[in-house]
Amino acid sequence: MKTENKNEERDRKQKNIDSELENSEVKENGEENKRREHGEILNEQLEEGKAVFGNSPGSIALCSFTAGLEIGFSFLLMCSVFSFFTGKLAEDTIFKLLTFVYPAGFIFVILGRSLLFTEQTSLLSLPVLNRKQSVTSLLKLWSLVIFGNLAGGCLMAALLIWIGPALGLFDLLAVEKIASHVISFSPQVILISAILAGWLMGLLSWLLASATDTVSRILLIIIITGIMAFTSLHHSIVGNVEVFAGLLSSPKITISDYLIFESVALLGNAIGGVVFVALLKYRAFVYNVD
Asked: Model confidence over 216-231: pLDDT tens digits?
């Protein structure tokens, strides 16, 4: 009897939540520049997440693979900048300068509507929190997105370590230096760093929903990803390109280094996006529903 009452109460609560979300639609008739309410942003994020679940596996895989390729342009610029300033500036200064080119790939991916795991982490969790999708379906979708991102990134890494030196843009020492910098921390440090990066990427997805024009969206991407670059927070998809390129081009980077980094970074990014953005933002809305 108690179980039935709990289930009835849970269903009633869910109906109230869904009703509130349906009422939180984007304002029209000239009100698009008005400040967006929490419920409006949550409803938009929820609908976008549900739309991704509705796409075919082939479409999801291709969009994810494309994102993995496109994010590689950040790595291309990073290696080029690193090589250009090597011998002219101190190495730690050069790493800080990479902040200015790091956002490029993210701009291409996000504005181009490709599927990047860290941007989609919190977004795809919302339909599960709203009881419209199961945890199993979420894990399957995450797996597909991650596989596409990693495959595209690995292919781009292999291409860049050939074309970069061939064009005289950078040498393989720059690739080794960047990869070594990424994996130079303990797994515990990489995990916490990746959680913070996942938090920022989930927050970026949330903030972009409140942006009203392309310029604002680009500035938000630059700010969030610039923070990640300047503070050396670990991003699993960019890091995949960085470390895999190092693995292919330098004996100092081992397969063990790559696998440990990638698994820890993916876990941290997922925790950051789900717990600190999706769960907290969703629960903040739910607490206002009777």
From this structure: 999 999 999 999 999 9
User: To which residue do tokens 């009777």 refer?
Assistant: 290
DSSP-assigned letter for residue 210:
T
pTM, full prediction: 0.90
Q: Which long-range contacts (CB under 8 A, 24 or more apart) does 105-109 make?
A: 105/70, 105/71, 105/72, 105/73, 105/74, 105/75, 105/238, 106/71, 106/74, 106/221, 106/225, 107/218, 107/221, 107/222, 108/70, 108/71, 108/73, 109/67, 109/70, 109/71
Which domains, ranges and CATH numbers included, belong to the chain?
40-286 (1.20.1080.10)
Q: Are 65 and 30 in contact (CB under 8 A)?
A: no
- Residue where the block lists tokens 């790939």: 105
CA gap 105, 77 in Å, rounded: 9
Q: What is the pLDDT of residue 31?
A: 47
Q: What is the dihedral of CA 53, 59, 61, 64, to 10 degrees?
A: -80
pLDDT in tens, 16-47: 666 666 666 544 444 444 556 888 889 899 99
pLDDT on residue 205: 93
